[in-house]
């Protein structure tokens, strides 16, 4: 649904985007993550056919950005990071205005407006002035607007920026719902944890360059390396550490200085640690705690971007 190859945008000597090559299929939700100025907006604007690249190829829904801009605009919903709303316009008027621009006519227009308002849970604000809405509501209105023509592809540029925690969660839930409708969604953020649970793929971009492209699990694996589990057998942890080290699958055992729990890292090729509790019990220990060691996504992001950020 979205395909780019060596997509590049230069401003003078600055590479706003350098040789971006990605491929998103139907139903993919792609988290596009990078700090300010990384090139996220540039990419989305090129895909939305609002900006020409310096070189490279890109197509959306099978249409080239060079020759199929009209078709692309019909097929996508682009929600920019900042968009204006008109003074003295009610919520329904605002949406009807855009519905008219998409040539949705007559009673169908009213129906569609009500439908998208319901979808983003803004029905109760239908008669409010758009300028009176909170930032969270305005973002939801922006999303409603890009859903009017039922696009197959959505480009959402930092939809959660500037929102309070509750509004962020609501926005995430909305994107999850859209995912269930098999839409292809590119959504940007500068925070990895914010997107981790709603995306099946992520791309991390820094200074115009894609430095990671894959699943969230791949990103975690790249940083964490081998699977690690936290184990505790209470006051016999020191003894269990020696025993664990004799298991052939175990690479390393380390006691956590604060909690005394044991971090057990497995050798390459061993992902499943479920044998650990079983074997410890068989070896006479009473298991108090066992879980896969969680990786802090913020750390994953910092690790992947290490050396590239200033
Ligand atoms: N019209 C322009 N002229 C010159 N440089 C530009 C122009 N537009 C963008 N840039 C530069 O291109 C780079 C990428 O900008 P872009 O807006 O794509 O980043 P971003 O990842 O979307 O950041 P943000 O999170 O701040 O929106 C930045 O260094 C920016 O200053």
From TrEMBL:
Organism: Urbifossiella limnaea
Family statement: Belongs to the ABC transporter superfamily.
CDD domains with a match to the protein in the record: ABC_DR_subfamily_A
GO molecular function: ATP binding; ATP hydrolysis activity
Top-level taxon of origin: Bacteria
Keyword terms, alphabetized: ATP-binding, Nucleotide-binding, Transport
Pfam families registered for this protein in UniProt: ABC_tran
Protein name, UniProt field: Putative ABC transporter ATP-binding protein YbhF
Coiled-coil intervals, chain numbering: none
Record flagged with keyword Disulfide bond: no
């Amino acid at each position: 649904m979205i395909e780019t190859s060596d997509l590049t945008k230069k401003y003078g000597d600055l590479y706003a985007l350098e040789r971006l090559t990605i491929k998103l299929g139907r139903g993919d939700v792609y988290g596009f993550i990078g700090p300010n100025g990384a090139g996220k907006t540039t990419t989305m604007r090129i895909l939305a056919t609002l900006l020409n690249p310096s070189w490279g190829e890109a197509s959306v829904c099978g249409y080239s950005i060079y020759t199929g801009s009209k078709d692309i605009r019909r097929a996508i919903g682009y929600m920019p990071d900042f968009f204006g709303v008109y003074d003295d316009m009610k919520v329904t008027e605002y949406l009807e205005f855009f519905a008219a621009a998409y040539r949705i006519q007559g009673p169908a227009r009213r129906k569609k407006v009500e439908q998208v308002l319901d979808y983003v849970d803004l029905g109760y604000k239908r008669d409010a002035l758009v300028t009176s809405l909170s930032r969270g509501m305005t973002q939801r209105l922006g999303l409603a607007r890009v859903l009017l023509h039922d696009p197959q592809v959505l480009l959402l540029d930092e939809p959660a920026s500037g929102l309070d925690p509750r509004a962020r969660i609501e926005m995430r839930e909305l994107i999850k719902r859209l995912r269930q409708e098999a839409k292809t969604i590119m959504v940007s953020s500068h925070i990895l944890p914010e997107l981790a649970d709603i995306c099946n793929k992520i791309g991390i971009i820094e200074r115009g360059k894609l430095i990671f492209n894959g699943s969230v699990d791949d990103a975690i694996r790249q940083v964490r390396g081998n699977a690690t589990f936290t184990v505790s057998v209470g006051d016999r942890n020191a003894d269990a550490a020696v025993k664990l080290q004799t298991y052939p699958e175990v690479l390393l055992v380390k006691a956590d200085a604060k909690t005394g729990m044991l971090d057990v890292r497995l050798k390459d090729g061993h992902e499943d640690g479920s044998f650990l509790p079983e074997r410890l019990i068989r070896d006479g220990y009473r298991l108090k705690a066992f879980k896969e060691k969680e990786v802090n996504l913020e750390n994953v992001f910092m690790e992947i971007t290490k050396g590239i950020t200033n």
